[in-house]
Specification:
heterodimer, A: alpha/beta, 6-stranded mixed sheet, 4-stranded antiparallel sheet, 26% strand, globular, B: mainly alpha, two-stranded antiparallel ribbon, 28 helices, binds adenosine-5'-triphosphate, binds magnesium ion
Chain lengths: 243, 655
């Protein structure tokens, strides 16, 4: 069943459009990875879905209801959470406050979710009184994801979760995301540069090149040369142990 | 010892009030990166409302204060929803609108309650005597309420969901909104809440001080001082800074010289700027986020027809007093011309650096007083006084600028405002030179030069108009020098300019001093037009009219400030307004211009004029082709299209 559907989307920053006539859909319960070179328009796609950018044409629908142009805070209430590129942890708030800020709902419910997050992210429990700014990059990424999950979103948008992290930490992240998938009923649209990570998690892949979707389909149907093209012909590491 | 303790209690009271003022300034800044100039005026309004309810209507004190706070909070809500929300991210325009609100509110209070100070009927009376120490009960009430509010505020900010939202959106509004924080609504609530705290401070203050409608500027300076010293955005810092300011003012009053006490806030601000521009507790980032004023898009290049119209207007300017007729109208023409020189100086500095200067009003005052002094003490005439005043204004600007140009954007603007007020204080207190509050009177005229006599208002106007033309030519020329090009490049990208090894600060300082020279000219002209100078003419609020002229007329245009000066100068004359309603009109003009014509009058007129011939031609064509000449239509359309395209490229043409 289609949860999120994007049709004919055209969006930009005032000049030439960054995405043009863009179609994409996310099914319930699946993980969709969107890959593409730097500047291809991946973050722009996520920003448009979460309401930061206004599309000039096209529609974004969540379970059939148009959500294009709704502000991020209202969209979160509708069930779409967006983990921004670069994590953006609030350093004037403690770790626990960062988590609480992301929560929607009543007191006891929130307390339950907090406990659940601490179950999954044990580091965060230990560090909960620290200022969010004092965490390491990897811990911050966990916090960013945990914080978004506090709202129990139906759709989780992840922008480059592996950015700037050591391979070991990325492994952890893959495990965690797998666990989150099992535990919560959340569909994930993730944008990634670390191709092996994306492919090991995703059910389907989309390839963006110069603002257009050049491929969309199941992971195993992805042609490696296509992937290479999307990244300007570079050698791409498809699995951790090499191509 | 008992004097010390009593003074300390007084200091604590004052600190509590200052904290209540400053906390609103600082948390609102955290949300909006903007400052509400009318903040202190809201306090005054609440104090006057309290007085009205208690003294005139016989309400008990507590409900009176609550009612006053609710009314003022409601006004803040309306101001936020109707004005500030519309201007969105344009902090500069929002700031100027708050200035307009201040003018409106102040004059509104005068219209309702008259201009004099009002003293609340004693409601909390008596004092406790402990040994030989007297503790006024009113002070105790204020300290307790302020302390309770401080604790409550900290709890709210630290423990509640709303407090988390406030802190989060102050740090990173985008991230906060992705976590479900309705950022705009939180900012609105903060604005209303912060203003309500100021209103409460007003209600409390009425217990111990008489309040006049003109105190708004005074209180906002206290708010700025505390918030700037603490570091904008820092609430605990504001607590500490309020304590420092309140204590030192009260101690100064008791042990030192009363007349210099208002200088303490100025000294604190300057001190912090020299030592630590982001304030004691401020994040470095908060200070830099204020950097760079709002620079509107350039004015479209004049097309020939537009040039003709403007040249004709300038030519007509010489005959203005003849056209106006009455004596009063001619006198106003003189003021408008000399204000225009000053507005040109402010406008030029703005175009060169992107900084709106509120401190050029002080250099204007330096020019006027230097002239008055030289004339009274040494018997110098207009033509020798003029160069002296220019030099004096430039020297003062150089020294002042060396310190205050460390700031940029809104912070520069605030510091400039405070510095101008400091000069006014200096003029009051340095009696032997300045004649104190009554100022200096010089009944003299510029005499005659090269057979031209300058005695009556018309002749004086023509002299000032000639000076204005010289100033305009000078400004026009300066804008075309490589020096100006370097400054404007730095205005648009400081980092780049610095990395190319340009002495950005020094260049700015030179431009500052240069434009201050023009202020000196205008100051001397003012002296000869008005025959006297007095400190009240040169306070921060009195000289706000100059940046206002620049904004109203069009800050990016050469003639904008001139148009602003003439329009603002003549508004009271046309509508036959006294000084109070004039200020009201200024406030309304400012709000309307910022909302409807944010680029000012002149650029709008230029755009209309540029398009006029094309429109006219198009209208004529339509008339001609109407009788059924269907076959010619494509050609006509083609021509019209061409005309429009030309217009666009002409607009883009200018830098
Ligand atoms: N705020 C902005 N204003 C103007 N242009 C922008 C803005 N943000 C992004 N762009 C442009 O839009 C294009 C797509 O940017 P986007 O951030 O979506 O790329 P991306 O695919 O996420 O790249 P990366 O992998 O580097 O994060 C780029 O050419 C970029 O320069
Ligand atoms: Mg990106």
């Amino acid at each position: 069943m289609t949860l999120l559907e994007i049709r004919g989307l055209t969006v930009g920053y005032g000049g030439d459009p960054v995405l043009e006539d863009f179609d994409l859909h996310l099914d319930k319960g699946e993980v969709l990875a969107v890959l593409g070179a730097n500047g291809a328009g991946k973050s722009t796609l996520l920003r448009t879905i979460s309401g930061v950018l206004q599309p000039t044409a096209g529609t974004v629908r969540l379970e059939g209801e148009s959500i294009a142009g709704r502000r991020p805070d209202r969209l979160l209430r509708a069930g779409v959470a967006h983990v921004l590129e670069g994590r953006r942890i609030l350093s004037s708030l403690s770790v626990e406050e960062n988590l609480l800020l992301g929560a929607i709902g009543r007191g006891p419910e929130v307390a339950d979710r907090l406990g659940e997050m601490y179950d999954i992210f044990e580091d965060l429990k230990r560090l909960r009184r620290l200022s969010g700014g004092n965490l390491s990059g990897g811990q911050q990424q966990m916090l960013a994801i945990g914080r978004a999950l506090m709202a129990r979103p139906r759709v989780l948008l992840l922008d480059e979760p592996s950015l700037g992290m050591a391979p070991v930490i990325v492994d952890r992240l893959v495990d965690l995301l797998g666990e989150l998938r099992r535990r919560f009923d959340t569909s994930v649209l993730m944008v990634e540069q670390t191709v092996w990570m994306a492919l090991s998690l995703a059910d389907r892949v989309g390839l963006v090149q110069h603002g257009r979707l050049v491929f969309e389909g199941a992971v195993d149907s992805l042609d490696e040369s296509m992937l290479g093209d999307a990244y300007f012909g570079g050698e791409i590491m498809v699995s951790r142990d090499g191509p | 010892m008992s004097l010390f303790i009593e003074t300390a209690i007084g200091g604590l009271t004052l600190s509590g009030l200052y904290f209540l003022i400053a906390v609103g300034v600082t948390i609102v800044f955290g949300q909006t990166r903007n400052i509400n100039f009318a903040h202190g005026q809201f306090l005054v309004f609440a104090a006057l409302l309290t007085w009205e309810f208690v003294n005139n209507r016989g309400y008990p004190y507590v409900p009176a204060v609550i009612l006053a706070v609710v009314i003022v909070a409601g006004m803040a809500f309306v101001m936020d929803a109707l004005l500030l929300r519309r201007l969105g991210d344009n902090a500069f325009a929002s700031f100027l609108v708050t200035l307009g609100v201040l003018l409106l509110l102040q004059q509104g209070s005068v219209e309702i309650w008259g201009p004099s100070s009002q003293q609340l009927r004693p409601v909390v009376i008596g004092r406790w005597v402990i040994g030989d120490i007297f503790v006024p009960r009113a002070d105790v009430v204020i300290v307790i309420v302020a302390a309770a509010l401080t604790v409550g505020l900290f709890t709210l900010l630290q423990r509640s969901r709303f407090g988390r939202s406030v802190r989060a959106s102050a740090e990173d509004p985008l991230a906060a909104s992705h976590l479900g924080v309705p950022v705009r609504r939180v900012a609105g609530a903060t604005f209303v809440g912060g203003t309500a705290l100021a209103a409460l401070a007003g209600g409390l203050m009425a217990l111990i001080f008489p309040i006049s409608p003109f105190d708004g500027g005074f209180f906002i300076i206290k708010g700025f001082a505390v918030a700037l010293v603490a570091g904008l955005g820092s609430v605990p810092g504001a607590g500490l800074a309020a304590l420092v300011l309140g204590m030192s003012e009260t101690m100064g009053q008791a042990y030192w010289r009363t007349e210099w006490v208002p200088a303490i806030s100025f000294v604190l601000i300057i001190g912090i700027l020299v030592l630590r521009p982001s304030g004691f507790f401020g994040r470095k980032a908060a200070a830099t986020e204020m950097a760079g004023g709002f620079v509107p898009p350039p004015v479209p290049r004049y097309r020939p027809w537009t040039t003709v119209v403007f040249a004709a207007l300038l030519g007509f300017g010489i005959f203005l007093p003849v056209a106006v007729g009455s004596f009063q109208g001619r006198t106003i023409a003189g003021f408008a011309a000399l204000f225009a020189i000053q507005a040109c100086a402010v406008g030029l500095f703005y175009r060169l650096t992107g900084e709106l200067s509120f401190v050029h009003g002080a250099f204007w005052g330096v020019g006027a007083y230097m002239g008055a002094y030289a004339s009274r003490e040494w018997g110098w005439g207009f033509w020798t006084v003029l160069p002296l005043a220019i030099v004096a204004a430039m020297v003062v600007a150089f020294v002042v600028g060396a310190v205050i140009l460390r700031t940029t954007g809104l912070q520069f603007l605030l510091v400039g405002f405070v510095a101008t007020d400091f000069l006014a204080l200096l003029l009051v207190n340095w009696r032997s030179v300045t004649g104190g509050t009554s100022g200096i009177t010089v009944i003299e005229s510029p005499g005659s030069v090269f057979g031209f006599a300058f005695f009556d208002p018309r002749e004086l106007y023509q002299l000032f108009f000639a000076l204005l033309l010289v100033a305009l030519a000078l400004v026009w020329w300066i804008q075309r020098t490589p020096f100006a090009a370097r400054l404007m490049a730095a205005r648009d990208n400081v980092v780049l300019a610095r990395s190319l090894g340009q002495p950005v600060r020094l260049n700015k300082l030179l431009a500052f001093a240069l434009t201050a020279g023009l202020s000196g000219v205008s100051g001397v002209a003012y002296l000869y037009q008005n025959f006297s100078v007095a400190p009240s003419l040169f306070t921060g609020l009195a000289t706000v009219a100059f940046p206002l002229m620049v904004i109203l007329g069009g800050s990016r245009s050469l003639l904008g400030p001139v148009a602003g000066a003439f329009v603002l100068g003549y508004i009271p004359f046309w509508f036959d307004l006294g000084p109070g309603p004039t200020q009201l009109a200024h406030g309304i003009a400012l709000v309307i211009v910022m909302l409807l014509l944010p680029q000012g009058v002149v650029p709008t007129v230029v755009r209309l004029l540029n398009a006029a011939p094309g429109r006219l031609r198009a209208a004529l064509e339509t008339l001609r082709r109407t009788p059924g000449a269907r076959s010619r239509r494509p050609e006509v359309d083609g021509r019209r299209y061409g005309a429009r395209r030309q217009g666009r490229s002409a607009e883009r043409g200018e830098r």
